[in-house]
Amino acid sequence: MNLQLPTPAPHLSKAPGAAPNRLLSTRAGGALVKQYWDRLFTARERGATVVWYNGAALNPIFQAAGIEWCHGEAFGARLAAMHLEAPAQQAGEGYGYINELCSYARTTLGCAVLTKQAAESSAGGLMPDTDVLASRLPPPDLFVNAYAGCSTGQQWDEISYRLFNKQLPLFKVSYPLLWGNSPEDGYLRGPEWERASHYVAAQLHKLIEFLEHHTGRPFDWEALREAMHYIKRAGELRLEAMALCRAKPAPATFWDWIASIAPINFLPGNQALVDYFAGVKAEIEQRLIDGVAALPNERYRLAFDGIMNWNKVGWLANKFAENDAAVMVGRYTHNSFWHEPQLIDPDDPILGMAQHYLLCPFNHSAKTLGELLLRECEAYGVEGVVFHATRTCRSATNGQTIMAQMAQKAGLQTMFFEGDVADESFYKDAVLESRLEAMLETIDSRRRLA
Q: Using CA of residue 407, residue 409, residue 413, residue 415, what is the dihedral sign?
């Protein structure tokens, strides 16, 4: 995407260490997400059919089928971001899911334990504890698993299925890993890509048949086309807004895109979704006109690789800002979530949907991941890469060492810190601080020698 970016006007700097200037428009996304969850919590009272699913963004299919959906990872991330994950994690550990298990899975499996207990309490005439957010999910009628690149994720819903006494229907979508080993195979190209795309598309048609059987209703193909029309437009606006952030100083950063993950990941495909990303883009455009920067004293541009540590989002954003380091881009934000909207044909959307599901950021070879990282670093003028080695997510950390080597050969400085997606006990503030300081000092030294 080639955009002519306006030159930012002069902007008065604040004192070093000022807080990041976060986008105000992302608050609208938070309101939409809250409305979504609050509505889901009342699904049983409204007589709605509920599916629990993990992995790929299958929600447009559920939307068209007239089913309400609960994305397990999304709810686990929400609990962690609100620092309300403890009851679910304790319930999961009490049931036998040790703390070395993926904390997304452990959190939402703990939610399943609490949900089942709440349903049993209601059936016995007792009042469930609705003050615990982790216990408010409606019990599922169906399970659908659609996990790429993660062996734990591929078993996640089978474990939930067993927890609910093997009495609920379960459908599983299988995704082949995109190895890219042959010269003709690569990102969005080659025989491997074509075979895998059609293989997954065929399974999506089978999933739709599964939903028709268990709902007793014909699938609404026109509703799917409409949902994907909105999702495609939202994806386009999101990419256009991201590209505007290549300007120096950046009008928005990685942390703003972290705040926008939930809307593009699992909210309904409708006009509200499009309006949200149009608002985000409009605010960024206005910042460029007014010369408003995300960091008042931007000195460094970094990339962030790895899933977000949801317990520490605010702390991390502030820590990088204190060091005048603008985190520009990340695998989890810029190479995920309907990020190739040109693949979507709203009139015939299944193939493009299948291809996006294959493009899960953990479903590529380390070589491909490294190439994508270097492409983004060049586009955003990045000098260093921060690797978040996620303690309980092996699929996110696989390949990071190779990616770091590729980045170093390209002249980029790198650092690693250990953390987790939803369990802050694995994270140490001091480790991040000391390693970030060392990396920025090295970047300064390189600049002086250049």
A: positive
